Q: What sequence folds into this?
């Protein structure tokens, strides 16, 4: 009984999954920036405003000196370190929540923090139907939305949320899906 040699899979820099034989990355998508910057701005505001108010209150009653000042700076440093970690995790989550479109499949890579990883994929030939959901003024003005793919696999719905230029991504997937189906015949 002879076995067929297994071709080595190659890794693309920055991707946490190997590419299949003959597979090329066409597009790497992240959520729209609206999912990152307002969140970071809000967290930064929540981190800074209370400390500034306490500092201003202590200064107003002339209590910001000696032991009180030292205790304030120690507590402020711990408080700001906590919020800096929160901001980092929001940034990390944004930068590691990817949708990779290749010439053979769609891959959803999700890392909430450095110790988690979820990778799902759907072969393009299994994508039966795709539609775009864009709801509201903000999504319309900034041109982002969700792409929902119905597949013939176990996970029947594949959702790419918050994608910038969803019509362009849908056209790319449609084109590659049709090309892959023709190649499979």
A:
């Amino acid at each position: 009984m002879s076995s067929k040699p297994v071709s080595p899979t190659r890794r693309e820099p920055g991707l946490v999954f190997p590419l299949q034989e003959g597979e090329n990355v066409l597009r790497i998508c992240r959520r729209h920036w609206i999912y990152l910057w307002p969140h970071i701005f809000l967290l930064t505001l929540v981190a800074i405003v209370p400390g500034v108010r306490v500092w201003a209150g202590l200064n107003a009653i002339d209590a910001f000196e000696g032991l009180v000042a030292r205790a304030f700076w120690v507590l402020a440093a711990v408080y700001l370190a906590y919020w800096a970690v929160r901001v980092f995790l929001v940034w990390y989550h944004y930068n590691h929540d990817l949708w990779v479109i290749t010439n053979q499949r769609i891959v959803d890579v999700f890392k909430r923090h450095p110790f988690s990883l979820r990778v799902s994929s759907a072969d393009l030939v299994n994508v039966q139907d795709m539609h775009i959901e864009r709801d509201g003024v903000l999504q319309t003005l900034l041109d982002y939305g969700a792409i929902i793919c119905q597949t013939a696999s176990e996970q029947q719905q594949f959702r790419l949320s918050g994608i910038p230029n969803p019509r362009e991504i849908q056209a790319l997937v449609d084109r590659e899906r049709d090309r892959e189906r023709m190649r499979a015949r």
